[in-house]
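Below sits our specimen:

——
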Amino acid sequence: MQSSISLSLSSPSTICRSDSSSSAVSNANVNLLNPRSLRFCGLRREDFGLNSSLSTHRIQSLSNATRRPCSNRIVASSAGNGAASKGFDYDLVIIGAGVGGHGAALHAVEKGLKTAIIEGDVVGGTCVNRGCVPSKALLAVSGRMRELQNEHHMKSFGLQVAAAGYDRQGVADHANNLASKIRSNLTNSMKSLGVDILTGFGTVLGPQKVKYGDTVITAKDIIIATGSVPLVPKGIEVDGKTVITSDHALKLEFVPQWIAIVGSGYIGLEFSDVYTALGSEVTFVEALDQLMPGFDPEIGKLAQRVLINPRKIDYHTGVFASKITPAKDGKPVTIELIDAKTKELKDTLEVDAALIATGRAPFTQGLGLENINVQTQRGFVPVDSRMRVIDASGELVPHLYCIGDANGKMMLAHAASAQGISVVEQVTGKDHVLNHLSIPAACFTHPEISMVGLTEPQAREKAEKEGFEIGIAKTSFKANTKALAENEGEGLAKLIYRPDSGEILGVHIFGMHAADLIHEASNAIALGTRIQDIKYAVHAHPTLSEVIDELFKAAKVKANTSSPVAEPVAA
């Protein structure tokens, strides 16, 4: 399937973050003021160069991309790392220093575990180096360009702006500099917190034993957090210049006049936003019968009307790009399209460049999984609802966990971090199951798209199977004062819920700052808050948050009683 969907709802589990020690209660006031407790997009405060008053532990990670030859080097931390459990070099070793490994390591430090992180490439993994961080830098540019180019929009404010232009290298430098800064701050924060950063290719040799380079270490518990790489279907030749993946596109080495984007999921949509703002024409190639598969259909339809139809974008749906040949000797990039059902040749495109945005594949080769009798499934490491690795016989591998893109439950950086934190809770004595239906996702187009929980078709299927009714409530950004003040009234928020109990099944938002607005809903799902309770929450006026306020107030709940929603059963 040629759609770059990084959110999978096929494996819901359960979220409920709580401290495992009673001291967390007595120290509540201290923790509220502790900068270490603040997170930005899955990263800690220290990652942005902000000092923390605490120091303790550190992270270990193996990169989310192709790993370099190991240099068998230990970066000593400046803070004490505690003492490991008797008979082990470390309490916890994490293979992979992406956002997932980083989140697990910092939480392990807070719990007093002696921690190490193995990284074979660069700290930060896909998100920091080739994903969320640099892509948001490019999208920040595209958002400003789009606004400055919209003469009608500017005139509505009474503003007159000369023709907007851009410096391609300057835009590329902005993305690269941001990634470098966050990567550097991430590394320094781990050192200062006492996490041992071990450089090399991490391999599991056996139970509680890991090798990196020529060095073998032992750990009471091991977490695999090696992430993913761009998925390139068969028949597509990537040259890194005219046929590229998202890794190459983020470098913005050139802006093609006409680019085909294979896949219309998150990755494809975001890059279409960037390229069209910078002047490119875009053609989507999507294997499914509609664009933006995976989004709630109603939200997807509205998003297509705003993000696709008015822009220099056309599309082919229900087709595979069976063969893509890079530009060469003055000839353009050629793309052969075949019907997704009949496999017959349907069309041939000639474009200046092609971006392969068909999703991501787990990076799990070379981990030594055969040493512990573990067989991957389509490259993913099989795990249970507690991220414990399952071997080929269906048995749990003791003291071995896998988080993030490598297990395929939900391929989002913040999901990986949440999974890592959940694992640390378990290894420190508190049972914890993460509810993946409470984890939000966002697409940072202009306007943005965000979602949490079930889509309407998924909710209706669940309702039919379990014998209950669902309710739908909607609110428009056109009724929001702040959105109108910004001349950004195009948008919709949608709530899917159970009228009989007030349980929130899903929330979907398309509109200005949708990615920021979704968290009130995701936290409500995580905490089991019912609509009849949350509708009394007070929101500042005038703010965009009132869109969500009105959404909950619009729901028609039959139940008058308030009680926590039953804890969802993990899949």
About this structure: Confidence is low (pLDDT under 50) at residues 1-79. The longest helix spans residues 168-192. The radius of gyration is 24 Å.
